[in-house]
Write a structure and sequence with these properties.
- The structure is a single chain.
- The chain has 394 residues and is an alpha+beta fold.
- 27% of the residues lie in helices and 34% in strands.
- It starts with a strand and ends with a helix.
- The model is unreliable at 375-394 (pLDDT under 50).
Length: 394
């Protein structure tokens, strides 16, 4: 069973009387890769900075191994941080960048019985620990290079090694992949997870990128407006979102108004659909989430619903198809091509339907009208026609 390492209890934070965090309650286990995920301004970086000791919460407690550490300064916490800007010393080579923190450290002299005398870490130990970190980050042989002779991904790994060489119990990472190009970012997602598993410590990662969170995390904490919306594994967050915000933020979602007729039966567009959900009141209004990849296109006469294709975009491995169902635009992701203007039927298996309780986010997401318009603007062949039709409607 995992051991709890950090607990945030009733954590609140405000700047100029404006709340930034609202009663955050969260525990983080030892050796866990936990990601704080949400849009800009949701409070995820503030939460990270409070854990690191860079910010003191307005109220609430931060517990580390059961001990309250609100007033403990960052340098006395067993926590290190890697920021988006790596801040490597340009005049020092890779070895000296990693060794820098060790050279600053002092520890009790074992020959002093009083324990008051402090000595530097021996040079032999520094070299051993730095070389160990170079092995971990796969940069052995790069120790004499300067930072400007490294790629962005290599610089990031050096910054991680510099933080890990001090052997913290927790590493905080604040959007460290943001400055990298797409391919390198994907490679580094795998690399970061490998490093975390190899060194066996807790990683707390902040990002607004859902793919990063799903790829690397053991646990995802979805945040919005200073509050936690959902905590769970990547599979739980994706397959069982708690509200319309989570469903929309994690992946693509069609979010439709529905009514829970009874357990395992939900009504949409006046038709009943079998599903796997229960525990709702009879005829309770609900939000229904249907992922684009869970929708099958079938002939009209076989469809549970019938709609008109309004846009088709080729994405390489699939088509993104926008379909109008009585004025509400759905996104369907499929390998089957359907031309614009075609009437199609759709079928959805019971396990492709997820029912959620209504929330303050209901009605805010799920209609792909704007999605479709963006595609239209990119389609030069049909742009003029779209503009004419728009003028006719006005």
């Amino acid at each position: 069973m995992s051991k709890e390492l950090i607990r945030l209890r009733d954590l609140c934070m405000a700047y100029d009387n404006e709340p930034v965090l609202n009663n955050i309650n969260l525990y983080i286990n030892d050796k866990e890769f936990l990601t704080l995920l949400g849009p800009s301004g949701c409070g995820k970086t503030t939460t990270l900075r409070i854990i690191g000791g860079f910010v003191t919460p307005t109220s609430g407690d931060v517990l580390f191994d059961g001990v309250r550490i609100n007033d403990v300064p960052p340098y006395r916490r067993q926590i290190n941080t890697v920021f988006q800007k790596y801040a490597l010393f340009p005049h020092l080579n890779v070895f000296e960048n990693i060794a820098f923190g060790l050279r600053m450290q002092r520890r009790p002299d074992p020959s002093d019985p009083t324990g008051k005398k402090q000595v530097k870490i021996p040079e032999e130990e520094i070299r051993e620990r730095v070389m160990e970190m170079l092995e971990v980050i796969n940069l052995k042989g790069f120790e004499h290079r300067k930072p400007d002779a490294l790629s962005g991904g290599q610089q990031q790994r050096v910054a991680i090694a510099r933080a890990l060489v001090n052997r913290p119990k927790v590493l905080l990472l604040d959007e460290p992949l943001g400055a990298l190009d797409l391919k390198l970012r994907k490679d580094m997602q795998i690399e970061l997870k490998r490093i975390q598993q190899q060194v066996g410590i807790t990683f707390i990662y902040v990002t607004h990128d859902q793919e990063e969170a799903l790829t690397m995390s053991d646990t995802i904490v979805v945040m919005d407006k200073g509050s936690i919306q959902q905590i769970g594994t990547p599979e739980d967050i994706y397959n069982e979102p708690k509200n319309a915000f989570v469903a929309d933020f994690i992946g693509e979602s069609n979010i439709i108004d529905g009514v829970m007729v009874r357990d395992r039966v939900v009504k949409m567009y006046g038709r009943e659909f079998p599903c796997l959900d229960g525990g709702f009141a009879e005829n309770e209004p609900v939000d229904v989430v249907i992922r684009p990849e869970d929708i099958d296109i079938v002939p009209v006469e076989q469809g549970q619903l019938t709609g008109t294709v309004t846009n088709v975009t080729f994405k390489g491995m699939q088509y993104d198809i926008i379909v109008d169902f009585r004025g509400f635009k759905w996104l369907i992701q499929t390998t089957d091509h359907s031309p614009v203007g075609a009437r199609i039927g759709i079928k959805i298996d019971p396990d492709g339907i997820h029912v959620m309780k209504k929330s303050s986010y209901s009605g805010m997401f799920g209609d792909y009208s704007s999605f479709s318009e963006e595609y239209d603007e990119l389609d030069d062949a049909s742009l003029a026609l779209d503009e004419e039709e728009s003028e006719d409607e006005e």
